[in-house]
Amino acid sequence: MEHSEELQRYRYLASKWLDHSITEDELREFNDWYNTNLETPLNIPSSFAATEQVLEARILQKLNDTLEVNAITEDSKYKNGSIKIGWPIRIAIAASILIALGTGLWFYQSQTIAPQLQGVTHTDISPGKNTAMLTFSNGAVIQLSDKRKAVFVTHNKLTYNDGSVAGLGSQDRNIAAGELITAVTPKGGTYQVILSDGTRVWLNADSKLSFPSQFTSNKREVSLSGEAYFEVAKNKAKPFVVNYGRAEVEVLGTHFNIMAYKDETASKVTLLEGAVKINNGAEKVVLKPGQQAEISERTGQAIILNNEIDTEQAVAWKDGYFMFANEPVESIMRKIERWYDVSIVYQDNLQDKALWGTVSRYKNVSEVLKRLELTGVVRFKMDNLNGKGKERRIIVMK
Q: Where is the Protein FecR C-terminal domain positioned along the sequence (predicted)?
């Protein structure tokens, strides 16, 4: 498939996805291909808009579009439309932003710059994979197959996405009605769980979801720590409730992402479709699509409502990408730590430096770090990659 027209087509769609110019029909086509090729990294050659000139042109166009909107908005505040932004000012603003972005912008596409990553020539760290474990209320444990990507929980048994039964030999067992099950993904693991009501849950690395084998009460209630993307099956008679951190999300049927890691400063709920209600003690907030509710887990402060969120960025992990926009190095490295199961050590104080960019999660860690080094903001050293005697480490430095 390497030189096939089909591959060229998907490279083209991927470049449009990265550029946010992909149409809904194209996105469905790309997703269908991607869901059947999770293990296949897609390299996008420079001919698909990786050149610096094309990048500048795209940024300038977006800035121009934004300025046009702003100009129209400002015009509406004054009579006779007296507020206008001339081209010299637009170009000056765009140029200043391009210069600002120049130190922290990186992309997935092929590059010719030689990064300086140290200590990766003889070994490397593979990306995470499909792996998870189910624990039942009676203490029984089933290690799910890493050859499959999803498990269905039906009224009395477990099956994989290919129809085979989960749990072999002595592990094969029936499930009691309402029995509590906990799905756990380790660092470097991800898995999809389809609950008995048809709700689909994608678990990110280092996450835990507890749920009953059947929803027998007047509401469907689950608990989450870590990160998960939900596509909730509609049932007006039984609201779906997710308990996480200090709060809960109540929905009827919708798509949303919850990020609630204990080592993050705040939990975040991002809504893609439908509507959800966030209950934080006595405080309640209803989200619309494109909004995000943020709650500080350390201070327990009131809900912060973020509007006009890039939902694609919020669920990029589910679609197989790291996607960062003005994101601090410390936050980026926590995601790398969970996905590659490594420890992060800071030799220099770079935690607050911000980076932008997109790269596949299904590349070895050295490839991801090389992309980050292309920004010129950070460098890395990989230590004890074979893991003998002590933990694998990535050292962050200037």
A: 321-384
